[in-house]
Amino acid sequence: MIKNDLNAEDFMEENLNEERTEENTKTQKVLELNGRKFILVGTAHVSEKSVEEVTASIETEKPDCVAVELDEKRRESMEDSESWRKMDIIKVLKEKMGFLMFANIILSSYQKRMGLKTNVKPGDEMLAAMKKAKEMNIPLEMVDRPIAVTLRRAWAKNSLWGKCKLLSVLISSAFSKEEVSSEQIESLKKENEMDSMMSDISGFLPTVKSVLIDERDRYLASHIWECKGNNVLAVLGAGHLPGVQKYMEEIARGEKQTDCSDISEVPPRSLGSKILGWLIPVLIVALIVSGFVFGGLEAGKKMLGSWILWNGVLAAVGAIISLAHPVTILISFIGAPITSLCPFIGIGIVAGIIQALIRKPLVSDMEQLSEDAGSLKGWYKNRILRVLLVFLLSSLGSSLGTFISGAGLLVSVTAFFDKIVDFVKSIFIH
User: Fold this and answer.
1) For the chain, N or C: smaller number of CB within 10 Å?
2) What b/e readout covers 301-336, taking b as 16+ CB neighbours within 10 angstroms?
């Protein structure tokens, strides 16, 4: 009901808020649980309307707390426009986060391209939520899992085939020229659109869907629940609405706990994985040694040469395709046969660091990172992206070389397999 003492401006503002609220119900879930009210505002991360809806919802609801689908590090990088200056590509490679950075850059570039149609940068609705909350003196909570943990879990929990599919999806999205209209972006907030997308992801990459969606639904729901206050407004991607609602209702009924420690860390490598990491190098060395012992000097030299050539040449080819510096190519060739026998470091890390030291990234490379990641030419022009290319392709080359040369060594051993069997028998007989 409109109060009689409202002036024309107040009347228009109240009507506008009513219209916004009616529109927002299409992308909001209002939950009344255990005497508390939770408003889940679903957004598309490059939607202009989402920015408006988030701001209007906070103004209208005046919640006790605003929860945002970000972690603290992403919040800092979004609020600090100069954060890109602090990036150290060599440190990233040393900490074995090269693939994580590769995936993150591609995903950011893809979202940025989607936002070009709407003149909205990825995450603008999150920034709008934080800005409005600060203006209204409302406490803010970051309720998402750190992106590094999420991507590492997605990688670690995948099989070799799953990792290959994930890599293919990332690479194809990096160079996709598909045009996305503002209407298509807005449709991302519709539940039926999201259901279809989640179904596709689940079928093609079930492990990735489990980590990126299901686990984060649980994590978000638990941390939203733990926010202080009886009226909490949460801003999150529309795809999370159904899952978060489900988990929060289960928490309210006492069927689920808010403890997420089991999904808050990268799963440790299994014993089998650790053993396999050492088993392959030990097997390779054993095969080459057996060549010298049972096949003679020539056979041993031939097997050793095959190992060195396949590993070194294919790693060097990867570096060449990356248009790496000649020194980097040489290091890739020399280092790959050695690093392939060491589970602690790969040739991609070594080659990437050498490339970064020789062709040091410039400020302009950091400034143009997202833009350059959207084209093949950009990956070769940008020195940071070139380092990641060297890291990725030399690693792939060396891995391929390991499998090919390993298979070749097994074939070579068949020529003197009888001698090996006789030697083993002699040990157990005597």
Assistant:
1) N
2) eebbebbbebbbbbbbbbbbebebbeebbbbbbbbb
Mean per-residue pLDDT of the chain? 80
Stretch among 99-103, 217-221, 383-387 having the lowest mean pLDDT: 99-103
DSSP string, 264-284: SSPPPPPHHHHHHHHHHHHHH
Domain end (from 196, 230, 263)? 263
Residue 186 has pLDDT above 90, yes or no: no
d(CA 77, CA 177): 27
Measured distance between the N- and C-terminal CA atoms of the chain, rounded to whole angstroms: 100
The model's pTM: 0.69
Question: What does the alpha-carbon distance between residue 395 and residue 310 come to, in Å, rounded to a whole number?
Answer: 13
State how beta strands 231-237 and 65-68 pair.
Answer: parallel
Backbone angles phi, psi at 92, to 5 degrees: -60, -45
Domain of residue 146 covers 14-263
Model pLDDT, residue 45? 61
Are 232 and 346 in a shared domain? no
